[in-house]
Amino acid sequence: MLRRVPGTLSKAAAVVKLKTSYLKALILIQNSTLAQFEPSASTQQSACDPVQIREAAESRSADDTYHAFQIERLLDELNYSQRLTGSTAWKFCSFPSIRFLDRHVRQFYWTVTRLVGLGHLHDGAKNRSPARPCLAQDAVEQAAGPRILIDATPTHRHDDNTGIQRVVREIGRASIAHAGAFPVVIERGRLLSYFRHPALPDVVQIETGDQLLLLDSSWSLLDEYLPIVQDVSRRGGSIICGIHDLIPLLYPGTVSIGTTQAIRAWLSAILPYCAAVVTISRSVAEDFLKYVSEHQLPCNPSIRVGWFHLGADFTADAGRPVSPQIRDVCERTPFFLTIGTIEPRKNHGTALKAFEALWAAGIDVHYVIVGKIGWLSQSLRQRILEHPEFGRRLFWLQSAGDGDLSYLYQHAAASIQPSIAEGFGLPIIEAARFGTRVIASDIRVFHEIAGDAVTYFDPMDAGALAARIKEELTNPSPMLPIAILSWKEATARLLQLIRDEAYPYTLAGGPVEIR
């Protein structure tokens, strides 16, 4: 008699398990949503306080959007999983012998690569040592005294040209023009200058008054960073924690569980050593202060919090020729553009629904998505690739250089940013720099950076977005000015904020005080 290998499931059992998991998640989300509307004793006592009423309304609105988004996304993933279990590939890979072979081939690969010194290919690149770039002789301005060291380790190791990597790369490059500031990387337990130059130290020795700005996506490398952070503090230096957003903590369903856990562990371990926190928007600074207070994260009691805004100019390869593929896409006018990694919070699905409604109504319009495939988005990926309009009026470009992006912005009818949550919204100001109109989801941080200069819509209402797109086609509104910084200006403001310690917020014993 054949026995099923432990841990394997029949197709029917797999579907039942998936349905059960997703239904449990839906119930939890719905219960959480309903719980928000049940007045607590404290809510009843403060029922006449207009400030608390407004804050509660704003919080409930954001939470409702998130919960509605999660329910819809989970249903999409369930539908995709059911289709997947019926595929030939799924059936083939479900055979116990195939699973057994796959597991042992992977183990053999991991063992051999570690033996020959290539373990970084699958262990997070901890031991990888990419070549550090050289600078022109006159590119560096350095001076004696305390320095601001801008960490760029993850970007140096694997630059995917996504949002955070773009910020780190641009600020690191611009910082060199400021005396006493330059990017650094961690390599084999030491701090090295990111750039090679005679005026820069190869190995950075921490001196009293130096400040290490942790600006990169470092949360997955806590074991490497903690000894460095402790050493900087021990030698009389200061730690500045850079935070791009708190989305994995505030909206955990939009990322993997591992990411949420890693960021929570990172903040719990690093914040006690930090003299200050710098965020990329006031909205994120306020989110941080509220989260630390509500969740009682371990923190330096005298920590101070400030923010700055990002730059919008392209400096890397904007002068390079535009690719033939991009030129071909831009000839298909009118087209609307969304730039951003394919991941849940970017909300590409709602935008695609809006265009499907327009196509069904006989409106000839094109939709161009630029961004690599991210996480928890396999159903959306298949939906795009299998769409009847894919390659005709729907386009997905998984990579584009600065020159290509510049060309796309200049020729787009408008840029659409449908995110349900962001730390800043770089594509909005990039589009504004080229005079391209913007249609954006109605979230707090977008109002902070764009004000009334863009057209807003409910991020869960595809019909509302379709109406905004139709308005742009038939009666486009004039583009109002948006405050736009270059990366040089943004870097100068960041460094000045740190040097002057001009942080507007403090966290003293829990309550937030505005300085």
Layout of helices and strands, plus pairs?
Blueprint lengths: L10 H25 L5 H5 L4 H36 L2 H6 L2 H20 L32 E4 L1 H5 L5 H13 L5 E7 L2 E4 L17 E4 L7 H13 L3 E6 L3 H4 L6 H14 L3 E6 L2 H14 L8 E4 L16 H7 L4 E5 L8 H13 L5 E5 L7 H8 L8 E4 L4 H10 L2 E4 L8 H8 L4 E4 L2 H7 L4 E3 L4 H13 L12 H14 L4 E3 L4 E3 L1
Parallel strand pairs: 1-2, 1-4, 4-5, 5-6, 6-7, 8-9, 8-11, 9-10, 11-12, 12-13
Antiparallel strand pairs: 2-3, 7-14, 14-15
Q: What are the key terms here?
A:
globular; 19 helices; Rossmann fold; 3 domains; alpha/beta; 515 residues; 15 strands; disordered N terminus
Would you write up a description of this structure?
The chain has 3 domains: 11-38 and 47-86; 148-311 and 493-514, 3-Layer(aba) Sandwich (Rossmann fold), CATH 3.40.50; 324-484, Rossmann fold. Helices cover 46% and strands 13% of the residues. The chain is an alpha/beta fold and 515 residues long. The strands form 2 sheets. It has a 9-stranded mixed sheet with strand order 3-2-1-4-5-6-7-14-15, sandwiched between helices. Strand 11 (414-417), helix 16 and strand 12 (438-441) form a beta-alpha-beta unit. The longest helix is centred in the first third of the chain and has 36 residues, at 50-85.
